[in-house]
Amino acid sequence: MTDEILTSRPMRDAQTLTRAGFELPAGACDAHVHVFGPADRYPRVDRPHYTLPDGDLAQLERALGVLGVERFVIVQPSYYGTDNRCMLDALDAAGGRARGVAMVDDDVDLQALQAMHERHVRALRLDLFLRARLPTAEIRAFIERSIRRVRPLGWHVQFYTPGWVVRDLIPLLPDLETDFVIDHMGYMLESDGLTRADFDRLLRAVADGRGWFKLSGPYRLAKDGNYARLQPLARAIVEAVPERVVWGSDWPHIPEGGRDTGELLNLIGEWIQDAAARRRILADNPARLFGF
User: Fold this and answer.
1) Sheet harboring 121-127: ordered strands across?
2) Consecutive H or E run containing 33
3) H or E element: which one contains 205?
4) Which of 116, 92, 95, 93 is closest to 104 using CA atoms?
């Protein structure tokens, strides 16, 4: 991740989104969205990676309503750091059809986590981009502390991490003592020196432990827009851990708010031909993981 501050683009009108080309199951869930609010109410971190995105709860609900997605999971963005107020307020407003993934400081106590649990938070996001230059032993210690913190609540941990950090953590993954989610299909970019062999090793480690994969962020992996080349990876994931795969749009697609969320949803129809498998990915699996 560079020090460049990206300029967030305006949000696309929900009515212009491509509709799903397949039948969505009841309870379909977008397991990875971000929500933003007014700058005078929700302060950003000192050095954000992007300008304030155009993407509040009302816009999200309009977009998902057009697409027929009933549930969603709000993931705390790096823009707000460990100040979860925007995400928590959005959860309160959304009611029971939303869940949250928080980021916290190392000194957070169980009482604070329990209060977030009551507001439908069900996981911690571990931002390993922030820690990518630390020794692997320090990153491992941070992960293990986080797991000890969430186990009393039955939460899982979610890895937001460069692929090369994931590669270095592969030996640790099968032994983690709680469910964990790998964002963006592993984020293993060829430009970072990652290979299909690295991906296959990650796949085995996730399958051998309590890991989940999130089919999300295809435009972060195929920066040229050639999503077809991600199909073998998506199908390998679904074959390896069919009961532990979820889908996320990564809305509002920072910094490209004009991106077509419907196009991203339709990738599931292209990549996964079996309707029962799509139902697991879009509805059954996220219901189990997030307690819907």
Assistant:
1) 29-33, 71-75, 98-102, 121-127, 156-160, 180-182, 211-215, 245-247
2) strand 29-33
3) helix 196-208
4) 116
- Token representation of residue 76: 């705390």
Q: Which two tokens stand for residue 6?
A: 């990206």
Give the burial string for 242-281 (b: 16+ CB within 10 Å, else e). Answer: eebbbbbbbbbbbbebebebbebbbbbeebbeeeebbbbb
Q: Cβ of 189: how many Cβ atoms within 10 Å?
A: 16
Residue 125 in contact with residue 103, Cβ under 8 Å?
yes
Would you give the distance in Å from CA 231 to the centre of its chain?
19
Q: What is 14-290's CATH topology?
A: TIM Barrel (3.20.20)
Candidate list 83, 106, 250, 260, residue with the active-site label:
250
**8 A C-beta contact, residue 251 and residue 30:** yes
- The predicted pLDDT at position 81 comes to 96
Percent of the chain's residues with pLDDT above 70: 99
CA distance 231 to 228: 5
Q: How far apart are the first and last CA of the chain?
A: 34
What residue spans define the domains of the chain? 14-290
- Our answer to whether residue 250 is catalytic in this structure is yes
- Answering whether pTM is above 0.90, one says yes
